[in-house]
Automatic annotation (TrEMBL):
Keywords: Repeat. It comes from the Eukaryota. This is DC1 domain-containing protein. It holds the Pfam family C1_2. InterPro entries: C1-like_sf, DC1, Vacuole_Formation_Reg. Residues 29-74 form the DC1 domain. The keyword rRNA-binding does not apply.
Length: 100
């Protein structure tokens, strides 16, 4: 499901899920706030999963640099419980953590 502009010549669409996230999106994967900015027809790959099929209005974009985050990556749970571990697991953004 998505919302779309009612003007015939406008191709703007917004997924219902994206509309539920308040802006700016402050995400642990990036130092700047992210916004659902859009330019019809533009496409930006997600900087996390590198999905290049995202249209510009399907990504949360940084207005200070070239960072983009797709909805799927933006909504990955920050903490999960795994059935084979008694501790909560915390999402890591690529930094290796030493266990010693």
């Amino acid at each position: 499901f998505y919302y779309e502009c009612s003007t015939e010549e406008c191709d703007f669409r917004l997924h219902v899920q994206c509309a539920t996230i308040s802006e700016p999106l402050v995400h642990g994967s990036h130092i700047h706030p992210l916004f659902l900015t859009s330019k019809p027809g533009d496409q930006r790959p997600c900087c996390v999963c590198e999905d290049s099929k995202c249209t510009y209005n399907e990504t949360f974009n940084c207005i200070e640099c070239d960072f983009a985050l797709c909805f799927g990556c933006a909504t990955i749970p920050q903490r999960v419980r795994y059935k084979h571990d008694k501790h909560m697991l915390i999402l890591s953004y690529g930094k290796e953590i030493s266990s010693t």
